[in-house]
Design brief:
Elements lengths: L3 E13 L2 E7 L15 E8 L2 E8 L9 E6 L5 H8 L6 E5 L14 E7 L3 H14 L4 E8 L8 H10 L4 E7 L7 E3 L4 H11 L7 E6 L1 H13 L7 E5 L6 H6 L4 E8 L2 E8 L4 H7 L17 E6 L2 E3 L7 H5 L2 E3 L3 E3 L3 E5 L4
Parallel strand pairs: 7-8, 7-11, 8-9, 9-10, 11-12, 13-19
Antiparallel strand pairs: 1-2, 1-6, 2-5, 3-4, 3-6, 13-14, 15-17, 15-19, 16-18
Helix pairs in contact: 4-5
Cofactor: FAD
Protein name: 2Fe-2S iron-sulfur cluster-binding protein
InterPro entries: 2Fe-2S_ferredoxin-like_sf, 2Fe-2S_ferredoxin-type, 2Fe2S_fd_BS, Beta-grasp_dom_sf, Cbr1-like_FAD-bd_dom, FAD-bd_FR_type, Flavoprot_Pyr_Nucl_cyt_Rdtase, FNR_nucleotide-bd
Length: 348
């Protein structure tokens, strides 16, 4: 079960025309609960128009800052993002889960990190940048950050200030798709841009780890290009905005029913569900307080383990091959494919 804590909003900062940062007031009694690693996210919960809405947002503050801060960018028809960018104000209260997520960076001495981010994909990366610059004087961080224009660039002034402060440690590069600037590259982050930075501008730097955050197409392109340049697969870490559908998995989802047993908070519940339904949705309809956040297959809040039977996921960019072999699933994307299924939310 996800545990949520009511936190007051300390400040709402207008970052761009359609993006804000939210700083929470974390009481001393909850400081330990909200300790986080650079790159992790929190889930925000709010009742909007008489409906509970949950959304996951990456923490953009430094783990050493004693500050819990996220950034929210408005998306078309986005219920929570519209509320956050237009209505939310200081002293309002939101329910907030403890930090989680596996897209993390623990700074190490003498390491060279590089990140490719687009739009609001900067949020977890900014936390990583600050963590490295603040704690490891012998480490470097190189950022390639894509946006439409300066006006659309979240944390533009903050990033420039970091560059001015950590001149020898922080390499900052902008890519703008709708605006030409003398100190930026024009276009979208693609193969040619990755090669330009890795093989030319920073050819003398041996990068240890790459962090990618943004649209799936960008991540796939950057991953393939870095691999072609000798980066090992295990040294390329990414987090997606959205995940694409696995059509082969969709074809395995059939009409029919399954008897499913769910272990949650040391209690077993058994019910029948349609195989065309997701395990998470069916669990919630049966009044189980199953953990979830994005419901889009791009976070790991709803992870569970299949201990009997089989299930197939129509989206997955989070779980590794090893985790899949161990039976782990994202329940928001998983459908039963056997008549009986046992799922354990506790053994994760």
């Amino acid at each position: 079960m996800s545990t949520f804590y009511k936190l007051k909003v300390k400040e709402v900062i207008k970052e761009t025309l359609n993006a804000v940062s939210i700083i929470f007031d974390v009481p001393a009694a909850l400081k330990e609960e909200f300790t986080f690693l650079a790159g992790q996210y929190i889930t925000l919960k709010k009742e909007i128009n008489n409906k509970e809405v949950r959304r996951a947002y990456s923490i953009c503050s430094s783990p050493n800052s004693n500050e819990l801060k996220v950034s929210v960018k408005a998306v078309e028809n986005g219920v929570f993002s519209t509320y956050a960018t237009k209505e939310l104000k200081a002293n309002d209260e939101l329910e907030v889960s403890k930090p989680e997520g596996k897209f993390v960076l623990t700074p190490q001495a003498n390491k060279n990190y590089i990140a490719f981010a687009a739009g609001s994909g900067i949020t977890p990366v900014l936390s990583m940048i600050k963590a490295v610059l603040e704690t490891e004087k012998t480490a470097t961080f190189t950022l390639v950050y894509g946006n439409k224009s300066i006006a659309d660039t979240i944390f533009y002034n903050e990033l420039n200030a970091l560059k001015n402060t950590f001149t020898s440690q922080f390499n900052l590069n902008y890519v703008f798709s709708r605006e030409k600037q003398d100190d930026a590259v024009f276009g979208r982050i693609d193969t040619s841009h990755v090669n330009y930075f890795v093989k030319n501008i920073y050819k003398d730097i041996s990068f240890d780890t790459a962090f990618l955050c943004g649209p799936e197409a960008m991540i796939n392109t950057v991953t393939n290009t870095l691999s072609d340049n000798g980066f090992a697969k295990e040294n390329i870490l990414f987090e997606l905005f959205t995940a694409s559908i696995d059509e082969d998995a969709v074809a395995q989802v059939k009409e029919g029913e399954s008897e499913i047993t769910v272990l949650l908070d040391d209690e077993e519940t058994t019910f029948s569900m349609k195989q065309t339904d997701t395990i998470l949705a069916a669990s919630l309809r049966n009044k189980l307080d199953a953990p979830y956040s994005c419901q889009g297959g791009v976070c790991s809040s709803c992870i569970a383990k299949v201990t009997e039977g089989k299930a197939v996921m129509v989206k997955n960019q989070i779980l590794t091959d090893g985790e899949l072999e161990d039976g782990f699933i994202l329940t928001c994307q998983a459908h039963p494919t056997t008549s009986k299924l046992v799922v354990d939310f506790d053994d994760v």
